[in-house]
User: Fold this.
Amino acid sequence: MMDISTFSAFKSRNYRLYFSGQSISLIGTWMQKTAVSWVIYSETHSKFMLGLTLFASLFPSFIFSFLGGVVSDRYNRYKVLLVTQVASMIQAVLLTLLIFFRHYSVWEIIALSALLGLINAFDVPARQSLVYEMVDDKADLPNALALNSSMVNLSRLIGPGIAGLALEKFGDDICFGLNALSFIAVIGSLLMMKLPKYIPKPHHKNVFGDLKEGFLYIKQTPSIALVLLMLALISLLVLPYSTLIPVYAKDIFKGTASTFGIIDSVIGLGAFCGAIYLASLKPGRNLRKILARNTVIFGVGLVLFSHATNYPLALLFSAVVGFGMMSQITISNTLIQTTVDPAMRGRVISFYAMAFFGMQPLGGLLVGTISQWIGTPDTVLIQGIITLIIGVVLYRFLKKERERKLAMMSFPKSEDKLF
Assistant:
């Protein structure tokens, strides 16, 4: 049962504004994502093109996220975020006009997806870093990050469902148009915020010096390096399963755009439940242990979903997938944000963005290609098995680490007995 601590971050006015504006904008974002996948697959009937679309939308974030992290640490994060949100709105308007006039090719959609990926390279480090400044009581930061995930996943629950209906009843251009309008909410909420006056800091290094400093910091902080490595593996080998959902909707369950929207929404429902669970955790819980357990749940969900031919059962398994998947993103982010040096926040988050956004496009191409060879169900099955292995390895690592700490604690006592 949820208590007041589940929403403790809402005590901060700036965070409340951010949460409300971003919630509306993210529903539009998920509508656009759903519509892009559906349009691409309907036009090409190619699983590889689905992977290529994911690659185009995320790979620019991989290339430029380092620069985005430096910009976030060097300049006013609030202004950077305002600029990226306006740029995202312009991208959505261009995509809407392209679809509305019907004179488009798949490559033009992919090019605009790549443009959004470039914008996100600067948006993500600034937005994630700014959350820290929006929360008045820093003890509420883990709660704010968990609520962020609930917001993302609630929008994933609502957005694809609305998109599926809109695609059938009104046409794909409506999905893109509604996304463009949704940016008014987040830009408005940012303009209403009252943040502390920004004080520019002197910079004694060039951009490459800042990048090197961030990399060395991660290398010398094993707890952060481990989290980033695990997230990179999951993003490369597992998270691109989402590119194959249109195949399940259209070919396996013989459905329509609504079927696709419903599956995506149920994944979002599971992820939303997982985010609320994390938001309800009391301070001091072992997040790495929860991450290992939920990684195993993620793997079990994928294995069960992979060869499901009964639609209601597949929806149940997809909710399990969503619950486990959400932890990869949220707990990783929380572990980083609560331990990182504030001066390194933007750069470390840019490495987080690289691990999350950068590996997925490469994985999308890999998964799209493999599914062409061995089929979609077997591909998702393999992804589930890989996830289980990663979860078990993390469990074993944490167990050995705990045993090592216990041995170190008991060693002086043994010495006392000897002497």
Observations:
- The first helix runs from residue 13 to 44.
